[in-house]
Amino acid sequence: MKFIIALTFLLVSFLSDAQKIQHVKLRKGNWIAELALNTTNKLPFNFVISKGASNYRFSVENGEEMILLNDPIQRGDSLYVRFPFFNSQLVFAANSRKSIEGYWVNYNKGGDYKIPFSSKKKKSSRFSFASKQTPVTNVGGRWEVTFQPNTNSTYPAVGLFTQDEKINSVTGTFLTETGDYRFLEGNIIDDSLYLSCFDGSHAFLFKAKINDDSLDGKFFSGSHWSSSWVAKRNDNFELTNPNELTYIVDNKTVEFNLKDLEGNTYSFPNQTTENKVVIIQIMGTWCPNCLDETKYYKDLFDNYHHRGLEVISIGYEVGDSFEVHSSSIKRLADKLSLGFTFVVGGSAKKGLASEHFDMLNQIISFPTTIFIGRDGKVMRIHTGFNGPGTGKYYKEYVENTNSLIEKLLAE
User: Fold this and answer.
1) Is the same domain home to 270 and 168?
2) Between helices 322-336 and 288-304, what is the axis angle to 10°?
């Protein structure tokens, strides 16, 4: 009898929790969401709710990028919604048809890395306190940017912004020598520029005071890091050529011995790569720039594998064991249906990658790619990756790399 009473109590509790979410039917359409990075800074992003065949569908929108999240899992009165490629998720419950609240957890930074998350159904600017009036300043164009100025950690960037004054909208990105900051979107409020991006791996918030042709700003990455940045208009400013940052030293050859996904030794070069054009991608599944690059390399592989192109991806991963590293790589390979050869590099440390590839001056970025011709000679080494958010830079890279692969396959 006690068992039956206990079971009945549990069943009633489960049904009451389930009914909470079922009774609150969320409004479909465009929502504005926020991550509370700290007590004073909130990172907004566009959140879209639609209805699937049997459940809600949730998407995160940054400029031209739309990220469809995995199908939600319901536990009690909360929904758990994972990002498709990164080890993170949103957890939230409904306050009403037009309001949800919870948190974002990024497991790559530990299970305790949680940032409060909330979202409301309303049609407004990304930064909801933005004025609907036409801004008096236009930041569209090209900017010479310095992050962490006047420190030992300073680094250059190019700011590329497009502004639509009619709706007070700014989109664009920052190019750095190790990759881009992907799809940024925001507004101008009074004399300040606000931009943000949230993709499940990175949570970026940029603020800057506008003073004619200069910007003086603050950059926040999640709740754990921030830095200052400054910029000035400069149509001619360029970063170092990404094909010149990493190079072979002392005429050494590219060789390595690591483990494949099953733990077996994988050595390069080998018989399967003999007389092949080989792309060696040094990457990590936690890295959005690496994901953008991997999607492009999938197109290359699918188009040219039958003609002799091989792609070897070496993952340097978050986690403290081979099994965790291998599992992360397998998840990405399955998600994108990749036919590459995958190798486990180890922990996500550039120093470790530099040890494995000691024929190079150093590994300064995930990703870094080595292009090798049929004769085994290194033809190009590309540091970082500027993805679709960089517009013409991405298109030019794709065109140039396609031409290089065509040339190497023809030799």
Assistant:
1) no
2) 60
